[in-house]
Specification:
The complex is a heterodimer of chains A (237) and B (305). Chain A contains seven helices and eleven strands. Chain A has 237 residues and is of the alpha/beta class. In chain A, strands 6-7-8-3-9-10 form a six-stranded mixed β-sheet, with helices on both faces. In chain A, strands 5-4-1-2-11 form a five-stranded antiparallel β-sheet, with helices on one face. Chain A is globular and about 45 Å long. With 305 residues, chain B is of the alpha+beta class. Chain B folds into two domains: 186 residues, no CATH class; 89 residues, no CATH class. Chain B is elongated. The relative contact order of chain B is 0.18. Classes of the chains: A alpha/beta (237), B alpha+beta (305).
Chain lengths: 237, 305
Amino acid sequence: MVRFENVFMRYDGGPVILRDVSFELQPGSFHFLTGGSGAGKSTLLRLMYLGARPVSGTIRLFDRDVSRLRRSERPALRRQVGVVFQDFRLLPHLSALDNVALPLRIAGTRESLIREHVPELLAWVGLSGHLDALPATLSGGQQQRIAIARAVIGRPSLLLADEPTGNVDDRIAVRLLYLFEELNKMGTTVLIATHNESIVKRFDHPRLHLEGARLTRVAMNAGGAVAVSGPAVARPS
Amino acid sequence: MWGRNDLALGRDPSTRFLPGLLAVLVYLAVLAAIGGLTAQSFVSDWDRRLAGTLTVQIPPAVAADAEGSSALSDERRDAVLRLLRVTPGIAEARPIPEAEAAALLEPWLGPELVGTLPMPTLVDIRLAHGQPLDQDALAERLENAAPGTTLDDHARWLSEARALGRSIAATGLLVIVLVSLAAVTAVVFVVRTGLGVHYDEIEILHLIGAPDRFIAAQFQRHTGRLAAVGAAIGAVLAALTVIGLRWAAADTIAETGPAGLASLVASIEFGFLDWVTIAALPVVVTGVATATARASVLLSLARLT
């Protein structure tokens, strides 16, 4: 599903953010990505959703080497990846319903199906009364739930979430994690970047840990499908 | 073309001037097209009317008194007519009545001058179809019958009229080309500004899987709408201008009689194909603007890594 091999990453002469990072996510797996603020979690996710290119190393996504992808091949690959951005990245002039419907409209889904499925999902994340609300009129937590709904509406093969519980209370956070687990049970590979230790401890999934620009620790809460390699990366025991 | 837009392109200040600008450009293009088509139409009309005709001009005779001059002029005219009517290849020779000739000259010389100047006698000749006529020999015989008489086949005048018609039509075409270039430039400016203003939104669309053509379609629809509105306004204003000019010309003719420019403007008439050409202009400009928007977005996005 996802394979990083000796990936180095830095932005325009800045400090090294990822150094010799190697790991693999098996299809259908569920992982947390942990690390302190500025550890490179968002950058690692960005590389996975093709928002940036590594300085060196190889990234394979759905068995494709992303560095060899033509520009015209990227959209189809991106449509298989649902992303919850840390800053939500909602379109401010579109209603909650239209923001969530975007991936479906891009994929050419019939409007009747959109009108059926999007309100259902918004109701599930507790926003049934806000279908026509603009993001600016909603709280941070509500905006985050719209962002999550947008990421999962297209039933992606890979779901990447950057601090998806950062702006919601624990009750909503747990509810959202259950949503991600439901998707995972349906076959979606899930990677959640978070620094919410209580959430990580509560849900029994393996963890990738970033520190000092290296993927230095892989902790397993339980047996999981994670393999790591490379000199600086500890293998799961 | 009229589908939904997920980018807030309508809020861009740079797009607000586009309908107005395109209205002006289409207005100019339609008027240029009307000018070119009118010139072509006049030349074709003159060509058709004068094809197979000749004009004989017999200079006025001068005698001791007015009566003598008139009698001598009649004699010269009759001699010419006799000659023309027995010449093979001529189907009809019709002397133009003095009043009719005076009416033709009056718009140019004025009624006072036409009444006092000695007028030449004109004879219209219609050539017989399929029978060749030796014009040089005829001109020589006419000179013998009434010295000073000339034979005019309108070739020089028609040649100049055709050249003028072609020049006007070419100028009209040039105006349309320039207008199209200006429209393309304006659309490229608006699109590039829009791409800059909406960079973040476009990036989001890209990241959730939108291909470049999805984003291009948004700009294409938006530009198409603006262009259609502007082009329609320009075309309607141009049509109203022509209608207004024809009314004004008709009023002038009603007050002062048919003369010069008013007569020319009042006689503007278009065939079906002319109307199709005029109606096609706003459609073409809208199409050019839409295609330019699409191409401009696709080219700009392709430069991104």
